From TrEMBL:
EC class (word): transferase
Any single GO BP term: chemotaxis
CC annotations in GO: cytoplasm
Annotated protein name in UniProt: Chemotaxis protein CheA
Residues annotated as domain HPt: 1-103
Catalytic activity: ATP + protein L-histidine = ADP + protein N-phospho-L-histidine
UniProt domain Histidine kinase: residue ranges: 373-580
UniProt keyword terms in alphabetical order: ATP-binding, Chemotaxis, Kinase, Nucleotide-binding, Phosphoprotein, Transferase, Two-component regulatory system
Length: 729
């Protein structure tokens, strides 16, 4: 077994559990008595502790055990979550996250720096203040009502008894029985242990991957049964685990003997060797077994259980229903597998090459004119398209998980700046490429913090304006024309255009006589070093950030725009492609070169009638004025245009325009390849692709083209290569 791979799984799962724990803690601020949420936090801490014990990570085990003990008191109603306790457990989660990151970087926990060790000690002391009172010298809890088993009518064993029959696939599933036993010693003491070798075959017949181990264990601990059972949570499905509390009754030992596969007398001897039963007690138990067998011949077992009032029908029904729910949940979990992101990237690259090869085969078939070959290539193209869609789906994730992380950001920042702010989330089910999600987190973080610091007004100002005392920041996501739109909205004071213009003139960004539209004025805040803050805070005011946000969004082939109303609030809108790898394109020809337009942005194609173009760059489309761009002029294409030209009507973010091209060449699956550094600043070009013939076709950046069309003086005229052949060469 590759323990490094298993450790990576532990690290990934621990991070997921810490994220769930943080979300649950933030939910408790609005519903502090929600039992399901409290149980979710307890399960997360318990699972991390149990998994860490398997790897011998004693520092994590000891620290998490203290947190788990406090959570157990909360579950039992002895403590209640308040603002102080919630803040403490958020710090606990952060500290565990640092320890996990330390492991992920390849370091041992023994190599922790002094600051982390001191943080571990201080948090442990703060948690210990919430721990239950110490038990009395007699070993009984101060609260006698919580004793697991009274000594009345019970046998003499004052320790827990564990019967462990590990399943044959325990080792194959990545579990080590000896690690589980070592983990028991973290919250108790193994008094005695008897290994059972009945299932061990001769050495020649042994399978090194099969587990043959079984144990009878006498275990002394003040922990409750749930904690002891939790130690075997990962092997319970395939193993036989039986646990009896101290001073259990004789009939419970009888049930244990009946349930285990060994013979009665041999098992009785083992219980005696463990110190669980004395010889006299074993004789009483076995005598009760004989009487029970005689009684079972005359009365059905169900009748016996009902008469003894051991189990009621509603309890049986509820237990069966719960068992079915757990089984279905586990089946769903087993349907999920973890895949390395690098392997998915490799799959997408191979699918891209398959698309290019398929296009080449299709073109060859068309040139040959063979009907059967054409039919085969058409079927191949359909299959390749389905493979492409399935492969891209593997990398699609919901944006909601990213949005939920900002609950913590809003909570911490609002307390830091002294404002009462909540976060609203909508559209969390919207999916986009995992690569895009990873790279959009930092820009979103800056926008959310900026909205809280600059956007939301102080309490006195909000009350003077008749607004609610509590400010609101809203994150929203939705699909629009083949793109995903992310919105960061606040109900704050909005942007003051006159103040922005004054700052811009002060910095020399615009001249005194220059007139800008409201949208152009708002876009000035994306200029490097621009800030309207009067004071520099820990969050903002230094003029660093918004230009970086815009640059990061542009690197994702997206754009950012801003709407604001003075006194009402601001909305920052980010448009991003669904994927960065493969798209459906529409191939057009301009002179000898081919260009690809993202198909989702194409509305329609029409023939350009002679004389339909006006001098001011507009045509009439069914009575509507439509601006257009002549692609021949854009790319300085020499030669005369064909007698028949076409207009491709494109639309993006509410803007429409026509692209005048020479030829329409139909739909085309496009594998997006990035431009090199030499062409990185070319506006109007978003990348390139390889056609089936091996020729290069440029992919048009429609958003930047529409921006240049709306503001022709804002940018120099098109800086794209004269022809794709320049790149191909």
């Amino acid at each position: 077994m590759d323990m490094d791979e298993v450790l990576k799984i532990f690290i990934a799962e621990s991070r997921e559990l810490l994220e769930l724990m943080e979300e649950a803690l933030l939910l408790l601020e609005s519903a502090p008595e929600d039992a399901d949420t409290i149980n979710a936090i307890f399960r997360a801490a318990h699972t991390i502790k149990g998994s860490a014990g398997l790897f011998g990570l004693d520092l994590i085990v000891d620290f998490t055990h203290i947190a788990e003990s406090v959570l157990d008191r909360i579950r039992n109603g002895e403590l209640h979550f308040d603002e102080t306790l919630t803040a403490l457990f958020l710090q606990v989660g952060d500290h565990l996250g640092k320890l996990i990151t330390h492991l992920d970087e390849g370091h041992d926990l023994e190599q922790l720096d002094a600051e982390s060790l001191e943080q571990n000690r201080l948090l442990g002391e703060r948690l210990s203040a919430y721990m239950a009172p110490p038990r009395n010298p007699g070993g009984l809890p101060a609260n006698h009502e919580r004793i697991e088993r009274s000594t009345q009518d019970g046998l003499s064993a004052d320790h827990w008894h564990l019967s462990l029959r590990f399943g044959p696939d325990t080792l194959r599933n990545g579990m080590d029985p000896l690690s589980l036993l070592r983990y028991l010693n973290t919250f108790g003491r193994i008094v005695n242990i008897v290994p059972l070798l009945d299932r061990v075959p001769p050495a020649a017949e042994m399978d090194p991957e099969t587990c043959y181990l079984s144990f009878e264990v006498a275990f002394a601990s003040d922990a409750d049964k749930a904690t002891i059972e939790g130690a075997f949570e990962f092997v319970r499905e395939d193993s036989l685990i039986r646990i009896l509390p101290p001073h259990s009754k004789s009939n419970e030992y009888l049930e244990l003997i009946r349930a285990l596969p060994e013979e009665d007398m041999r098992l009785g001897e083992i219980l005696m060797r463990c110190g669980t039963l004395t010889a006299a007690e074993l004789q009483d138990v076995l005598h009760a077994q004989v009487q029970g067998q005689q009684e079972a011949e005359t009365r059905p077992i169900g009748q016996v259980l009902m008469e003894e009032s051991l189990v009621q029908p509603p309890v049986i029904a509820a237990a069966l229903q719960k068992q079915q729910q757990v089984k279905e949940s586990r089946n769903n979990e087993n349907n999920l597998i973890r895949v390395d992101a690098g392997k998915l990237d490799q799959l997408i690259n191979l699918v891209g090459e398959l698309i290019i090869a398929g296009a080449g085969a299709r073109m060859t078939a068309q040139q040959c004119g063979n009907a059967e070959m054409l039919e085969s290539t058409e079927q191949l193209s359909r299959l390749v398209e389905e493979v492409r869609d399935s492969a891209l789906t593997l990398r699609m994730v919901q944006i909601g998980a990213t949005f939920n992380r900002f609950q913590r950001v809003v909570r911490d920042v609002s307390r830091e700046i002294g404002k009462d702010i909540t976060l609203s989330i909508s559209g969390g089910e919207t999916e986009l490429d995992k690569t895009v999600v990873e790279r959009i987190t930092d820009p979103l973080t800056h926008l959310v913090r900026n909205a809280m610091d600059h956007g939301i007004e102080p309490l006195a100002v909000r009350q003077a304006r008749g607004k609610p005392a509590q400010g609101n920041v809203r994150l929203n996501a939705y699909h629009d024309a083949g793109s995903i739109v992310l919105e960061v909205t606040d109900d704050g004071g909005g942007l003051d255009p006159q103040r922005i213009l004054a700052k811009a003139r002060e910095r020399g960004l615009i001249s005194d006589g220059q007139v800008l539209t409201e949208k152009e004025t708002f876009n000035l805040i994306f200029e490097p070093g621009f800030s309207t803050a009067d004071q520099v805070s820990n969050l903002s005011g230094r003029g660093v950030g918004m230009d970086v946000v815009k640059r990061n969004i542009s690197a994702l082939r997206g754009n950012i725009e801003l709407d604001s109303r003075l006194g009402e609030g601001t909305c920052v809108r980010i448009r991003l492609p669904l994927t960065l790898a493969i798209i459906d394109g529409f191939l057009v020809g301009v002179g000898p070169a081919g260009y690809v337009i993202p198909l989702d942005l194409v509305e329609e194609c029409i023939e350009l009638e002679p004389g339909a173009c006006h001098d001011r760059g507009h045509i009439s489309l069914r009575g509507e004025v439509l601006p257009f761009i002549r692609m021949r002029e854009l790319f300085d294409e020499e030669g005369q245009p064909p007698r028949r030209e076409n207009v491709v009507v494109v639309s993006y973010a509410g803007q429409r325009a026509g692209l005048v091209v020479d030829h329409l060449m139909g739909e085309f699956q496009t594998v997006i390849k990035p431009l090199g550094k030499l062409f990185g600043t070319c506006r109007g070009i978003g990348g390139f692709t390889i056609l089936g013939s091996g020729a290069v076709a440029l992919i048009l950046d429609i958003p930047s083209l529409l921006t240049d069309l709306a503001h022709p003086t804002a940018h120099a005229a098109p800086a794209a290569p004269a022809a794709p052949a320049a790149i191909e060469a």
